[in-house]
User: Fold these one by one.
Assistant:
Number 1:
Amino acid sequence: MKSFTYEWEAKVPGAFMYHCGTPPVLAHIANGMYGAIIVDPADSEQTFEKAREFVLVQSEFYKDANDLEDMMNGEPQVVAFNGKAFKYKDQPLEAKPGELIRFYVVNAGPNNFSAFHIVGTIFEKVYLNGYPENVDKGVQTVTIPPGGSYVVELRVPEEGAYPIVTHSFKDATKGATGILKITKDAKDQPLAP
Amino acid sequence: MKSFTYEWEAKVPGAFMYHCGTPPVLAHIANGMYGAIIVDPADSEQTFEKAREFVLVQSEFYKDANDLEDMMNGEPQVVAFNGKAFKYKDQPLEAKPGELIRFYVVNAGPNNFSAFHIVGTIFEKVYLNGYPENVDKGVQTVTIPPGGSYVVELRVPEEGAYPIVTHSFKDATKGATGILKITKDAKDQPLAP
Amino acid sequence: MKSFTYEWEAKVPGAFMYHCGTPPVLAHIANGMYGAIIVDPADSEQTFEKAREFVLVQSEFYKDANDLEDMMNGEPQVVAFNGKAFKYKDQPLEAKPGELIRFYVVNAGPNNFSAFHIVGTIFEKVYLNGYPENVDKGVQTVTIPPGGSYVVELRVPEEGAYPIVTHSFKDATKGATGILKITKDAKDQPLAP
């Protein structure tokens, strides 16, 4: 057994995927060897406005953790946000009516593109890779490639339950569905979950 | 049987998909329960230039309208613009040489990403989600996620037949192919078809 | 046998795909009937900074060159940069530490979207379709639709071997993996390979 330590200086602000580089990388990612890194801007002019923030990592799981053939040519059995199918359907993410909400969304793949959308809402601003200057406005759904990311911001004026999905609905049906619950009673919280 | 009425104020300009929210959403979208909404900018500074305008909705149909398993793990049998395979191949969309043409393109999915392209042309300007400020220039093909949209503008200087496709050619071959016919005889028409 | 000659004036700068239009287009692209065209800006204000430049075309090959059914509903057997699986894994593309590197990346498909990424690096700037004004910054992975392109720029400060992939790892595993070797001994060269 050997151990490695990676050290680096985070120079570029944004939301990034990290994953192990042990071959076969496809199998390692499909078995959960990844995570997200959020780098806040060092430059105060690039700093995002205060908001309620969430980090979501979309990823796929295949039938058999060792079946590389299925990962290469088959379809995933489960697609999840933060590692578990329908995790935030039973335990919704909460926010208050009208407040600024920011999602850092990383797509770990290993294979499928994400069509990130929150039903019943339109993103006010979206930032490709979370870089503050890469801004687009008024977007319903963003394309996030495996190994890529988007930061999206929205405000929801009315209370209710708004489904968080990849709008590639075969993957939403396999687990990449959660609930954003808008309620006056939402508790304050730091970067979550 | 129950009936619902949704009311909302359209605040964000652009091209949007709507679809029913009855579960399973995947099956409902795969059976045609969707449409497009075009919201013109209220702000005159954001208003698009006068053009010949078309609305296209790309979508997939599966072998069996009730086979959710096939929709989740199989391939579509038909991919169409505006509901019917090769609809505009026999009945081309017409425009005049040199005039500004604008397509509002919504991808209803439910699963596949669109690579929208018109063979023999380069889009002069493309607008992510149809928001007037989200402009890019000189683009041959745009990625449209399921549940997403693009507005694209072009001018075609010479008469001829220009194929409209998703450049993911397996889906073009299944029906997502039409013809943009450039002819001096193109009739004037409002937003079409 | 008949022969055609296409003539046109290249008016829009960027990286473009060309392919034959003989039906079935899907089969012709899947058999390699395509290429890339790089159009340099005529306007000196749009001209890219001097850099070490590479052109990569990603594409898929299917089991049987004549099996249209497999191309429409199956998975590719090989995915390659510049026509051959793992071409630049054994013969890495070389550049020097710290120098500006520019990749013109065209995705010929015919079907799959590319998630272009170079492991261990972040693109300084990316240009949708290679149009100089379509710039985004600090991006780890770009989505390139079949029939589309991106120009990406990076600098790598330290010597080493950096894998070039589509981060849709099923396709990387099938051959869309190369190596960018950063070494002080990299030879000067024109647009390559």
Number 2:
Amino acid sequence: MAWRSALLIDPVASDDPREDFAETFRFFDPDEPALRVGDLSAQRGDGIFESLGVIDGHPQEVGPHLERLAHSAGLCDLPAPHLGQWRSAIARVAAHAGAGENVMKLLLSRGVEGQPIPTAWITLASAPDNTRSRRDGVDVVTLDRGHALDVPARAPWLQLGAKTLSYAVNMAAIREAHRRGADDAVFVSSDGFVLEAPTATVLLRLGDRFVTPEPSAGILHGTTQISVFSYLGRRGVETAYETVPTATLVDADAAWLLSSVRLAAPIAAVDGVAKAIDRALTDELNAYLLSPRD
Amino acid sequence: MAWRSALLIDPVASDDPREDFAETFRFFDPDEPALRVGDLSAQRGDGIFESLGVIDGHPQEVGPHLERLAHSAGLCDLPAPHLGQWRSAIARVAAHAGAGENVMKLLLSRGVEGQPIPTAWITLASAPDNTRSRRDGVDVVTLDRGHALDVPARAPWLQLGAKTLSYAVNMAAIREAHRRGADDAVFVSSDGFVLEAPTATVLLRLGDRFVTPEPSAGILHGTTQISVFSYLGRRGVETAYETVPTATLVDADAAWLLSSVRLAAPIAAVDGVAKAIDRALTDELNAYLLSPRD
């Protein structure tokens, strides 16, 4: 991973009428210290984020990512982001991307403890080479997320539907997958339903239908999954959001993990049981996902 | 809150034989940027921490806090901290405390993404005035932690027994308590057992016995609670770790939240039902907790 650019944003109120935000932006060197230790992102993982793919200089799906950022902000009692300011910042940073695949992160923290202003920044870095995951797939293990399917809706303080910076569990799940000889994890509810991967959405092919676990207070609505559903829909393929028992993941005719940077990675094994990879469709999906999308 | 001091630590291996660590420490201005945006504490809440009280210059219970830091590091696959180096750093920072109550935070993050070295730092700040909480108590609401009592032990990747920087849920629970007109929350398991408060341990008096929920993979072993148990034990009072049904919190003869900085805060109400405060014992406990402890 190599840094391409980094921009600090001085967040304005969501109804700020200005059209030019230049004076609220400041490029900085990401290898130099930029955050104070009092920042609640570092002290308590108290903030939210989004990761976007940037392909040949084009930031993918900016609208859906900003919508989700705003949704997460609401769930976390953070001030609503000014979407025009963020759009402008994203465009400025993307201009530093050059050719190839990059990953852009949008971050919004609750700010420095005791001060009322959020901290906001964007980073841009070269993306890891995901060729192999896209072609040969990923082996996954299922891991209990610890709660029943209906819990997140009745316990919103658990913030399970927000993309927060309190992401240590997601990283620990991936380490546990590696310990078990797999590449990635799929979280399942304690009552036996498929949720999502630590950093991706699960997509299943069941016969002619494409199904993803219904987004809810506990399952992030995947921007890449939305994009894939719209692509499949235009081709007349049936897509559906459903409650998916864990056994269906094992039995599905094919399955993928969808995310903004790795894109469509076919699932090659679930808990050690091999799964057929639909290479033609996977290649087609990734060709689409690598094309400019808004 | 006013900063008193801040120290960056260059962590050494846990078996480093040196006796003087001066060259691994660097005091810095906590109002100036000190962390890179690539630091995984800020990007993903991926790290651990401890909060200590520092009373009239004396850091309280350094040993138990360092033990717990090492325990959290193990649970999170972080390199074991060198306890001698941390002790030395704590002593240097505590020298800047002066009179009165201060709060010291020890932080250990996984470091900058893609680099193998953890980031470590200590901050020291004046403590908030907790006189009123200690005297008049705190009203609490019970909030579902989302999982059954036995989940954390069989799903260690959820890291529920580690004091991680992914602390946004704890902060969201306290905001939810405020929304409900209370001061603080007590987490209960989805199968109806008392766990802990977002930043404190629950202590109950049941007749002549003092009981706290049994520490487990899902309940942090409280350093202040250990200290109180040892104090009560020396006075011949019976103390016990038990599985505590939620109803017992409501029915207990008295209850407290114990933590390193607020110390013993009597619980004055649970979900709107008032609870008698044992002021004499509370004052006695806080006098003890404010005395120098190692």
